[in-house]
Amino acid sequence: MPSLNKLSLLSATLLGAALVGGTPGWKFSTKGHSGILALEAIVVSPTLVLMFDRATDDPLHTPDGNVAWGALWNLETNEPTAVKLQSDSFCASGSILSNGTMVSVGGNDPATEDLWLTNATNGLNALRLFGPCTDPAGVNCTIFEDINNVHLAENRWYPTTIRISDGSLMIMGGNHEATTFYNTAPSNTYEFFPSKDGGVPRHSPLLARTVNTIIYDIDTDTETLLPDLCVSPSVDAETIDSQAYSPNGQRVSNPFDGTAQLLPLYPPAYTPTILACGGSNKSDLTPTSELSSQDPALAQCSRITLTPEGIEQGWELDSMPQGRMMAEMIPLPNGQILIINGGQTGYAAYSSDGFLPGTEVGNSNADHPAFTPILYTPWAPLGSRMSQEGLPATDIPRLYHSTVTLTPQGNLWLAGSNPNANTTVFPPGVPGYSTEFRVETLDPPYMELPRPILSDVPQKIAFNENFTIGIDIPEGVSTSSIQVALVDLGFSTHAFHSSARVVFMNSNLSNDGKELTITAPPNNRVYPPGPGMFHLASESSNVL
Ligand SMILES: *[C@@H]1O[C@H](CO)[C@@H](O)[C@H](O)[C@H]1NC(C)=O
Ligand SMILES: *[C@@H]1O[C@H](CO)[C@@H](O)[C@H](O)[C@H]1NC(C)=O
Ligand SMILES: *[C@@H]1O[C@H](CO)[C@@H](O)[C@H](O)[C@H]1NC(C)=O
Ligand SMILES: *[C@@H]1O[C@H](CO)[C@@H](O)[C@H](O)[C@H]1NC(C)=O
Ligand SMILES: *[C@@H]1O[C@H](CO)[C@@H](O)[C@H](O)[C@H]1NC(C)=O
Ligand SMILES: *[C@@H]1O[C@H](CO)[C@@H](O)[C@H](O)[C@H]1NC(C)=O
Ligand SMILES: *[C@@H]1O[C@H](CO)[C@@H](O)[C@H](O)[C@H]1NC(C)=O
């Protein structure tokens, strides 16, 4: 591990400014063909997004002529380049270590389903290392895999991965094997990379408590769900199901994919508040035969502040303009949160055996795509935090296996959606959601405004220290209240954006308006050491 009191910066961008010369709007644009289905996506440099799919039948090929299931998207040329992988990255997670190396974690065993067209190896315990990549086009940037020597302690399909305060990755949960819907063989543990505790995973009572148990009938191949056996004897399953544990029975984790996000942190207190939105209020003891793609998703958002007083107050409830399954939340550099994508009905996953007969749309368990994003303003009074005013609608459904991320340039990048086993095209008139290869951007209004240029931005900054950068502010831009944010762009998969965070930093502009002195985040708990994007916004652009 490098020195823990440093954070390194990938790049610097100045966002926003006063609105000059009219009011530009938000705008969707299509940008080309992703080459592989972008089931997972992470920004790995100022110009590149790394995408992963399952090892399947994607159109893009590696230079040696084999089907690709990893690719770099070039934000400058809008083109994909295949990246060669050994193991199957289906439903992996990932994050960037403090030293700048991206790690893709876990995946699938392709032995049964994915072997049609690839030679992918079992990725259930895989660790795939990438970069740091310094070539703007990603030339010579490759994935390193050595499964015999570098691997997880436990098999994990669908793990969650975040960078923690010592710059390493905490890897949580997942399932030991592929399943169609509910968890069957959960990995109720945490482990770390680089490893801690001698490589022995830590048991997680949380994961153990929240997972169903089942009776499996071998003869009829059916499951009967049971109340959870792992719950502490003092808490019965009915209580677990009640408001005290999740307001109105809101479920936000797979396959009832709501989404959750840490709200931006502000000095001096950096008080953490969590927002969890959408998902479903169905009990996870519901047999799949009672679930339908037409079941309304929840509009509820639940927010809690993680201080003793906040926890005492409990969850504060709010409502999105519409219910959403598989929406994703993106913290923006001005402190707002964009809620985007997903379906208004149904559930995550596809072709789940035994779904209410005839209710799948093609293979999709979800329906009624949500085409218009929502802007959430954390500091607005309860009841007026959600807005869709001025936000455009796309016509591209982004359902299961879709991704979205903020870019280093400050706009949103959207790709993927594939509620099917492999790449699938439904002919016109045949119900179903085809594999989506169209890449889109969503430009906030500030993308059209003149933007200040930064200079002398340090490659690394130390916690709790002041540093000064050069700034060239275009005429007409208000300098009265500049906000400076350090942004972790996170890793997008399955409606979650792990590691994403925005930390605001105090700053002062010099009298001549040419230098900005900034106070770095105070410590490694406020911003886990590692790469970040440096964004500026003028406070007058709070609505962007
Ligand atoms: C970053 O750390 C990981 C884990 O120790 C290591 O495998 C990788 O090679 C390191 N990357 C660089 C660029 O040093
Ligand atoms: C699998 O590997 C063999 C040997 O390298 C190669 O000839 C073949 O084209 C590969 N198949 C696919 C689908 O990648
Ligand atoms: C990529 O690697 C090749 C072979 O080692 C080398 O000749 C080339 O200069 C490298 N290109 C870049 C941009 O690093
Ligand atoms: C569950 O959510 C649906 C859809 O929003 C709503 O109609 C229903 O009343 C909710 N049920 C409970 C028990 O909260
Ligand atoms: C796509 O998946 C189906 C099974 O779901 C399989 O029968 C078919 O062969 C696959 N197609 C390709 C091109 O691999
Ligand atoms: C950084 O600047 C602030 C405000 O001017 C000051 O209070 C603080 O002591 C400075 N910190 C360091 C480490 O110099
Ligand atoms: C900026 O100036 C204000 C007012 O003079 C002061 O309170 C603050 O600490 C300064 N911050 C930095 C980073 O210099």
Q: In terms of quaternary structure, what is this? A: single chain
Which of globular, elongated, flat, extended, rod-shaped describes the shape?
globular
Small-molecule binders: 2-acetamido-2-deoxy-beta-D-glucopyranose
Task: Calculate the terminal CA-CA distance, rounded to whole Å.
Answer: 38 Å
> Strand content of the residues, in percent?
25-35%
Residues in helix, %? under 10%
Largest sheet: spatial strand order: 6-5-4-3-34-35
Total count of strands: 39
Mean pLDDT rating: 87
Instruction: Characterize the largest beta sheet: strand count, sense, and whether it forms a barrel.
Output: 6 strands, antiparallel
Radius of gyration: 23 Å
Structural class: mainly beta
Low-confidence residue ranges: 1-21, 226-235, 240-244, 540-544
* Number of helical stretches of at least 4 residues: 3
Domain Galactose oxidase-like Early set: 451-537
Signal peptide: 1-22
Keywords: Signal
Protein name: Glyoxal oxidase N-terminus-domain-containing protein
